[in-house]
């Protein structure tokens, strides 16, 4: 009986320590991995969210850019990181949902190795071209590509990204052959688009809006089902004859599987508060993003739906990477 009493006392003594450890999070600077280069739309939003989280929790949230392999380098780094709440992935469809459908020998499994935290925002994709490119509309581009098979260079922000899938899908539907040119994110792609090294870019919309407004590039189409407010004169891909076509970019936070649920919920709550704040709304508007938010379960259901949507597209287009 005495041994039992001592054991209970010991358990009671240990329990507060576990609670204290949880309450101490974060105990050091937190790393927010962005799997694309600095300057991309995902990077801009990630830095705004990281700043808000730094203010909320009193420890610095540091954005670390780990670009390469369509987001897989950053995804792998987070999947293999300690599940202690000090490493997070601020990613896009590719590393969080779709790469597992395209890459052979992937070093992580996004279903198994990530726990959903929050869906931060959505954004249209945009198809743009250099000002001197002969095609002025998406139908013009398709017609030109058919007349010049393989001669149109289409840049996208990495193999397996939504830009890549969108490019492959349009070519498949149109029966046109273009040359896909992968980049390590949006920033180097934009540099080459402005320099004329590629004719066309298919990428997330926010980074391209200032260039379209300044008439440095031409917007051919957006990939949402409806025209977007920021570009009311730019038609949708559906208007170009692709009935039912829609491709929406999105940005989400996930953590290594095993990250304590109370820490996940703290970050979820803080991000939701940021999205509803005046500062958050301003940043979203400035970057032409639609804030989403919601619970971790909402993000899980959304990711499952995205995989179901894009799996047949990827298989039909035969997109496969090593």
TrEMBL record:
Top-rank lineage group of the source organism: Bacteria
InterPro entries, A to Z: BUG (IPR005064), Bug_dom1 (IPR042100)
UniProt KW keywords: Signal
Database matches in Pfam families: TctC
Gene3D superfamilies xrefs: Bordetella uptake gene, domain 1, Periplasmic binding protein-like II
Signal peptide from the UniProt entry: 1-22
Record's keyword annotation contains Signal: yes
Family, per entry: Belongs to the UPF0065 (bug) family.
Protein name: Tripartite tricarboxylate transporter substrate binding protein
């Amino acid at each position: 009986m005495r041994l039992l009493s001592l054991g209970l006392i010991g358990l009671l003594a240990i329990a507060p320590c576990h609670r204290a450890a949880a309450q101490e999070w974060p105990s050091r600077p937190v790393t927010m991995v962005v799997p694309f280069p600095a300057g991309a739309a995902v990077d801009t939003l990630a830095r705004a969210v990281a700043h808000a989280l730094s203010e909320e929790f009193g420890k610095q949230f540091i954005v670390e850019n780990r670009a390469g392999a369509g987001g897989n380098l950053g995804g792998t780094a987070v999947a293999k990181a300690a599940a202690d709440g000090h490493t997070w992935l601020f990613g896009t469809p590719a590393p969080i949902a779709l790469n597992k459908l395209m890459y052979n020998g992937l070093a992580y499994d996004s279903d198994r190795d990530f726990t959903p935290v929050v869906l931060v925002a959505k954004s249209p994709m945009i198809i743009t071209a250099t000002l001197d490119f002969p095609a002025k509309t998406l139908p013009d581009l398709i017609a030109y590509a058919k007349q010049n098979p393989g001669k149109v260079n289409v840049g996208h922000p990495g193999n397996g990204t939504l830009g890549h899938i969108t490019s492959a899908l349009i070519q498949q539907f149109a029966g046109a052959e273009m040359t896909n040119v992968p980049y390590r994110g949006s920033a180097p792609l934009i540099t080459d688009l402005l320099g004329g090294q590629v004719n066309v870019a298919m990428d997330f919309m926010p980074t391209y809006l200032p260039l379209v407004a300044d008439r440095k590039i031409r917007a051919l189409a957006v990939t949402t089902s409806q025209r977007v407010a920021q570009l009311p004169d730019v038609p949708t891909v559906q208007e170009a004859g692709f009935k039912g076509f829609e491709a929406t970019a999105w940005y989400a936070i996930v953590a290594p599987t095993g990250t304590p649920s109370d820490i996940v919920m703290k970050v979820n709550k803080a991000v939701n508060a940021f999205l509803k704040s005046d500062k958050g709304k301003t940043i979203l508007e400035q970057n032409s993003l639609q804030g989403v938010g919601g619970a971790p379960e909402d993000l899980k259901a959304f990711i499952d739906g995205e995989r179901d949507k894009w799996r047949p597209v990827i298989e039909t287009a035969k997109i496969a990477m090593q």
